[in-house]
Queue: 3 jobs
Job 1
Amino acid sequence: MTWYAIRTNPQREFLLAGRYDENGEWRPGVLEKKGYDQVFCPTETKFRKTIKKGRRVSIPVLYPMFCGYIFVGGRFSWLELMAENYITAAVGFPDEFGRRRPAPISDYEMAKLREMSGGLIPHRRSVNTHRAFRVGEMAAIAAGPFAHQVAQIAGLHGTKARVFLNLFNGTREVEVDLDMLDVA
């Protein structure tokens, strides 16, 4: 069977391809309901922190592995597929006449993609400046009038930090924005 990568509107992958709900039941997508043989949206599992019954817990959440893409295989009409809502294009390459031709994907590649689908992906959190900086640590001031100075953090409050700077022949406490600081 020949597969093709189809570009979709953002956050419409599960709507078109289907997905498992929180109870583990399959919810068919629009394309499956309309009779397309094979529709596949590879997923990855990430843990999201939430509060349930007053306790902070991590719950697994499925996300599309490729944002804005699904895979369609089998026999279908390109004209009907491209007329579907939320489908923007087929991934392909131009031929010798400059017309864009969909690029087929082999069964072998799709099998590898199916093996990877659903796997747990370690989530790399973006740096939370409140946790990246701690009282007593040293930080470099990256912007502002005190740029390129290294200062000790005296306190953190909201989006501000109090730091000790060497000014006027002594140490002074100054308040700066957290986004002006870099780890020293």
Job 2
Amino acid sequence: MKAASLPLESLLVAKHPLQRLSSPSRGVSAAVHFAALTSFTLSFKYILDHPDLANEAYGWHFQYLTIIGLTMATLTSLVGLAADLFLSRRLFAVKNMFLVCSAPMEVLISILYWGLRIIDTKLVMPDWVEMSTEADIGFHAIPAMVLTIDLLYLSPPWSIGALPSMGLASAIAFGYWFWVETCYQYNGWYPYPIFEKLSTGWRVVLFLFSAVLMAVNTVLLKYLYGRMNGFVHPESAARPGAVKRA
């Protein structure tokens, strides 16, 4: 059957051979993105309902990498839901572009937050911050889980390599460092207590380590996708659709 004779909707929702579920789609894909946005909205509502020192500070809660990541996750899922509702391949491509950044970032945030919290809660949470268990999970676990699901089940394979991912991660890590130091000049305190405990040199080490870890997350997520769904054949650029199942 010629492509021109196919229904328009069939052409719009055609998916990559390695993509597990149809997306953009008004079915499972839309439900996942809607549920994600509901959770993210409740997290932002929690900030407004429980104001603290950061609400009046320079940079607001965007001093926190957690909130920057949550914003990126919200934008990713919002574009994803729009792609689902309008069956737009263009918006779907934009969602996947955002996902390359937001998914590894959220996994990084979860690893750093829960890892440091196991050592000492006071490393990542100031004394003046009070947070319920539900809110804690909403901020520091659900975004990483939802975006990983989006990646593994609702997206085509990533094409980003190790070196570009390291460049992206470094730009984010040191861009955040500059932003944190700028906020410190106005507020006189750091958003995460661990920054107070480290000298400038050790803060550089921490941000460099974070950049490396985010790049590793990108590579591992890409590998996990391949193990679950299959790998793109090396000659796929010359022969579209040339893929190899794991």
Job 3
Amino acid sequence: MKTLLMSLLCIVCLLTSCTDDAPISNKPEGTLNFIVEKTNSAESGRLLSSDSLKSVLISIRDEKGVLVYDRLQIDLISFGGGYKIEPLALKAGNYQLIEFVALNKDGVATYAVPKEGSTLAHLVADPLPINFKIAANAITEVNVEVVKVEEDNKDLFGYTVLSFNIVKTFSFNIAVFTYNKLSQTFELSNANLIVKNGGSTIINQYLQNVTNKIYLKDQSGNYTLNVAKQGYAAHQRQFPLDELKQYANSPMVITLYPTSLTEGLEVYYPFSGNANDESGNQHHGTVYGATLVQDRNNNINSSYYFNGNSRIDLGNILDNLQYPFTFSSWVKLEDSNNIYNPVFTSQDNAPLYNGFDVNTNVSGVGIGYGDGYGENNPAYRRGKTVNSSIYGVWTHICGVVSGPNNIKLYINGKEVPGYYQGETQLPMASNFPNDIARIGQMTSNGVTYNFKGFIDEVKVWSRALSADEVPASM
């Protein structure tokens, strides 16, 4: 029987738990690489790409016996005349490698690690299961030797290495950003990821402050992703399989917002695959003509495009709203002609000036409210406008209304000087049961105006955000 031994060096950089606040750095952590070599009396050196390996199957369980990876199939990549695999992530703790099989391009087992007690176990220094420990902020090296699988030894490994069902897998990339108050920018951050399919948890994995590649079983049904970090509101979204696979090459970008920004949050429409309200108040929207498209981060089906004759109705949801209040949203205007391109109105349908609305045009952004006493007369409204074009480029707009003479407008997190319009000094009126809130459309003085362009991340707070909170809400 011809036997070939091949030594694999597994390098595992360690991860901390999901509640740790690891400092942000540029050094990647949590990688798992295989450096492949072969040695025997006749031949030694690196396993060459001419050996025609295509992928590896690995199974790893934790110290509680829970399978972390169950025959996960990972493609091998030619590198420097040999092979490497994409990084894998593991939390700190104790583990066992319980299966390791290398496959050729036809999916046939070519090399495998024999199991302790099997006929071939004596050929390797450390047969399966192989114990290893992942310690925080350290590198663990695991030496693995495999035996070439041949016709006369295929039943001697202690487990089946030829006749098995390969678990079909796929991968996607994900990057998480949080706000850094000192630099006043969003930066890559660590977090924790839980992925479920059909109610069952597939993985519970630590994400590093880099772009993370995640491997999942390819199975029917929708995948639910939950990204969480201590001190920040969790992000949850459901993905069809085909949509999740589209992040194989470019990363899904997730922004986590401080939990302090949930205080007074009345509505939050992230437009992550639908028009649902994620504030917890269940004010879900009904879409008329608007279509899901990529957002500013190129995330798929993560913002809405309004074609100039579309809207999202939210119902009578803000009847009790008074100032102070805050509105914020990401917008990209496509219409250069209309004087009004309404992003949001809190009280549409009534002939009177009431509630508040946010409008844009090619040269400016404005927010205003009505006192509920009249129509078509500046005496019954009050607002502020800034000269700042949002035409053709994703722009974050935020209006903070604290009173008739205390209205602030922020563009991309920075307050911009503007000018007041309207004369009323009375409070905003909102209690109109027949009115509804709308995104992308508004009727004023009998004329209906429509927004044309892109809208994302619509939020309304029943309080005034501070100057520090506004950029953190972007």
